[in-house]
Write a structure and sequence with these properties.
single chain; 4 strands; about 35% helix
Length: about 100
């Protein structure tokens, strides 16, 4: 199994209301990819961090292989969400991929 974890920080110039709406849109967009991308076994976006968190949201996804993760990264449906809902609003992206 290949795990793909992403942490994002939203742009500082966004209002609290904007941040909440953007986080919901990102969650909806990414979680809607479940069952639509080959090899993607599970996908969850957490937008409710504790006050101690220093990032705004987290993607936790599971793939059946490293090759499936590579396919996801260039899949048109994933790119549509990434380019339309994520990248325009984030300033930091931290990734950890690992196998178990």
């Amino acid at each position: 199994m290949t795990h793909h974890i992403i942490l994002w920080k939203l742009k500082e110039d966004l209002t609290a209301v904007q941040k909440e709406e953007i986080k919901k849109n990102i969650k909806e967009g990414l979680e809607s990819l479940a069952g639509r991308i080959p090899g993607l076994l599970n996908i969850k976006v957490n937008i409710e961090g504790l006050p101690s968190a220093n990032v705004d949201l987290m993607l936790d996804s599971l793939f059946d292989s490293p090759e499936s993760l590579k396919g996801y990264s260039v899949h048109p449906e994933h790119l549509a969400v990434a380019n339309g809902r994520v990248r325009p609003f984030t300033v930091g992206r931290y990734c950890m991929d690992y196998e178990d």
